[in-house]
Amino acid sequence: MPLDLLANVIIAGVLTGLVYGLMALGLSVIFGVVRVVNFAHGEMMTIAMYAAVLLFGAFRLDPFLAVLPVAAAFFAFGYALQAGLINPFITRPEHSQFILMVAVAIIMVNGLLIGFGPDARNVQTDYQLESIEIGKLLVDKARLYAAVVALAASALLFAFFRFASAGKAIRACADNHLGALVVGLRVKHLYALTFGLGSACVAIAGCMMILLVDVTPNLGPAYTLLAFVIVIVGGLGSMAGALLGGVLIGVSEALAGLLITPSAKSMFSFGLLILVLLFRPQGLLGRKA
Amino acid sequence: MNRRNFNKAVAATGVASALAPFGILRAQSRTLKVGVLLPRTGVQGFIGQSCQKGADLAPGLLKEMFGVDIQLMNADTETNIDTARTRAERLIQEGANVLVGPFDSGAAAAIAQVAEQRGVPFVINIAAAPQITEQGYKFTFRNFPTSVDLVTNGLALMRDLFQATATAPRTAVFMHVNDTFGQANAKAIGAILPRLNYLPFKLVDTISYDPAAKDLTVEVSKAKATGADFLLLVCRLNDSIILRREMVKQRWNPMGIISPGSPGMYEEQFYKTLGKLSEYCITNVPWYNPKAELTRRIEKAFDARNPKDKLMFHALNVGYTFEALMIAADAFRRAKTAAPKELAEAIRKTDIQSRMMLGGPLRFNAKGQVEGNASACVQNLGLKPMVVLPAATAQAKPVFPTPDYKRA
Question: Are B218 and A219 within 8 A, CB to CB?
Answer without folding.
Answer: no
